Amino acid sequence: MSKQYETVIGLEVHVELATKTKIFCGCSTAFGGAPNTHTCPVCTGMPGSLPVLNKQVVEYAMAVGLATNCTITQYCKFDRKNYFYPDNPQNYQISQLYLPICRNGHVDIETSAGRKSIGIHEIHMEEDAGKLVHDEWEDCSLVDYNRSGVPLIEIVSEPDMRSAEEVIAYLEKLRLTIQYLGASDCKLNEGSMRADVNLSVREVGASEFGTRTEMKNLNSFKAISRAIEGERARQIELLEDGKSVIQETRRWDDNKEYSYAMRSKEDAQDYRYFPDPDLVPLSISDEWIAAVKSRQPELQEEKAARYKTEFDIPDYDIGIITGSKKLADLFEATTALCHNPKKVSNWLMVETMRLLKEKEMDAEDITFTPENLAALVRLTDENAITSTVAKEVFEKMFSERIDVEKFVEDNGLKTISDEGALRQTIEQVIAENPQSAADYRAGKTKAIGFLVGQTMKAMKGKADPGMVNEILKELL
User: Fold this and answer.
1) 459, 425 in Cβ contact below 8 A?
2) Cα angle 81, 159, 228; round to 5
3) pLDDT the model gives residue 54
4) Rounded to an integer, what distance in angstroms lies between the CA atom of residue 248 and that of residue 266?
5) Element (H, E) at 238
6) Are 196 and 262 in contact (CB under 8 A)?
7) Tell me, what's the pLDDT at 463?
8) Are 326 and 297 in contact (CB under 8 A)?
9) Which residue positions in the chain have pLDDT lower than 50?
10) Separation between Cα atoms, residue 199 and residue 232, nearest integer Å
11) CB 232 within 8 A of CB 7
12) Cα 225 to the chain's mean position, in Å?
């Protein structure tokens, strides 16, 4: 009988915080920018330069800690982690080892297996390193220090996850929570959220953990899923062949769907941590924690519960809308203007989702305003435009900044409910389609659908469908 294996997974998640300036200096944290333009003596590690802590970093770290049920360490300090690498300008990184700002938290996730709590060991603040750019052409490596000193929090989970599904649910929960807090945009593709996966396998029923490996270079949920499946299979194969798993850091290559060893943990350097002598310890008062707590926004689960009682929309819609802070904000602002949650939800669930998928965009990339969507809902409610016209206007509004009401007016898109003009067109349609008219008169009531369609086509979709139906029936 073949052995059954269980996967044990813990994550280290790095999140770049959404501050305007870096953690210890006044340089910009904006993504992109020409290499080495967002730099100064502090973040390039010049001798004699001194770090000054950015207060907003501490508040974001506390906000994330409070939202993930952590205890805030009221006396905490920064340590130096010494390592020598070209993208690390001081030859040490300022981090927190001994007294991290948040400890002992948890988040609850939902998977096909039900609800589960994933422990958070700690969250600490640190600075990001620069970025090495390898130039194949010149056969050299260039360093860009724009990212050096960008504030990070590292969220270290307990080894509580057992499958790729649980890992993705945990990451999605973290990402959504942090986005709702406004602490980071958590874009994996831009590196503002990065996850390292620590994974080991053991026989089902064993109490001891197996030897773990750490996988780096994972910048999408799909890559993380594939890396977990790939590494699990690799470790099981080694154990089945009677070999042992080596504790090492591996790099995942998503194109080849394979991980390869970067460095073994045996020769991993001792980082020689010691308290940073240039930064005073932090003393976080009860009042400060209370102030951060009082500013915490409504998070996804509370929002979903409120939508259920406040707005009469389906659970599925609630899940999708609250699953993106951008969509939730758009939904609430639009509903406040037009007081029609059902219609607003329909526009977001159907047309918005369709266009996002078609254009391969994220909800974060939506540019139309609540004012414009509310105007569109109002115009359709008042039958001032037909649903066909509304869809055309929506597509325009989705891709360009237009004023909906002005656009409808300027392009003559208002519904034609002038009976005289409609009657004339309908008489012509009946004359041009004698067969359908005869079918209708012979009792084939469905034939009227074709005549309605032809009328709408002749009126370029701007006729009031109710009036078209009435006049057709009367004339036939």
Assistant:
1) yes
2) 95
3) 96
4) 8
5) helix 221-240
6) no
7) 65
8) no
9) 1
10) 8
11) yes
12) 17
